[in-house]
Amino acid sequence: MTILLYELVGRDESRPFSPHCWKATMALAHKGLDISTAPTRFLEVPAIEGGASKTVPVIRDGDKVVIDSFDIALYLEEAYPDRPTLFGGDGGKAMARFIERWSQLTIHPYVTTAALVDLHAMQDEENAVYFRQSREQRFGRQLEDVVAARDAGLAAFRTSLEPLRSMLGYQPFIGGTSPLFADYIVFGALQWARIATPYQLLEDSDAVAQWFARCLDLHGGLGRKVAAAA
Amino acid sequence: MTILLYELVGRDESRPFSPHCWKATMALAHKGLDISTAPTRFLEVPAIEGGASKTVPVIRDGDKVVIDSFDIALYLEEAYPDRPTLFGGDGGKAMARFIERWSQLTIHPYVTTAALVDLHAMQDEENAVYFRQSREQRFGRQLEDVVAARDAGLAAFRTSLEPLRSMLGYQPFIGGTSPLFADYIVFGALQWARIATPYQLLEDSDAVAQWFARCLDLHGGLGRKVAAAA
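Above: the input entities. Below: the structure tokens describing the complete assembly.
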């Protein structure tokens, strides 16, 4: 049976950009599950599945609707135990939560800083109005003023990835010798940046960039099916 | 059979202070293993087990000598599979490495800043000379000048724990509903501070402080057997 994935898009339906939706996309591919996607714009999210969620991703698997990328991964692990594991056991399930919080609090703020104007430019007219209003209210500044800080913050951002970079001296993936959902959590954040903005967050020689490239190669190069922003 | 743990002490043998030794102590207790300890001062480390290691912890389990706290945990998990797990599976084993790198790069530098002079004061005369020389060479400054920065860095340190703090909104331990070695990794860093310095790193109301208190209660209050520095 095909799983329906509601994923966030802008004007171009072929360029899903949400970090959280990418986490779900990679988790579904990791489980080898067939999916169909429902491209969803910001303003369409409240209507999906009868108002099930304020955010995407949302999946429908038969009668079951699951919201939130982490809960989707937990659901898939439980519903499809015979497919490749997303967590590698209960310890991995618990520690993936730490990694999710680390990614959300370390990588997401800087990607927002770097890509906010580009993310705005990806939306259609109506969603661009929503995006600007909601984000300028959240940040208390114009989008352009938020992004003006990205050059000044770049070095600190790269330094903030040092735990991941250092870990990659021990093993090729956060999941060890092969990727787990924890990899897709961090991948999602950097894929969001890759698709939204040509701004270079990482030097090519960075071990984190090399890990990210390995993640782009996974599942038949799934992450590369959307070209990097140019 | 009793496992021998070489652990770092200063003048007072009853106050082992090393973060890495505390990781091993908690891991051994988690596995319910009997231990005897060999209190070891900095300058005695190169001589233990015929020069097996430049650092402690080192354990001897029968014929087997294992060095490095993470490798000790991996060894115990493999050697004592019927005892409570330290990792909760292969995923947890891999992700604990990320948490170890995060702790080492986030918590350790600030604890060093906060406690360096107090750590010096804990050593006997000969080891105090070694400690001052080696640390002042490493930092390129006098110990007292390093510690002078601790008030200025305190707020940023507390903020840097936000991934852990945020995760504790989901679950009581890094390991989930109960502690795993990943908890002991971070515990070790804060226990090092607790034993070395009266300087207050965390507010009592902080969720991280409350998690740390839960860790102090584990294994019969093992962590509390050494009183906090006063």
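Note for the figure: Residues 3-79 of chain A form a domain with the Glutaredoxin fold (CATH 3.40.30.10).
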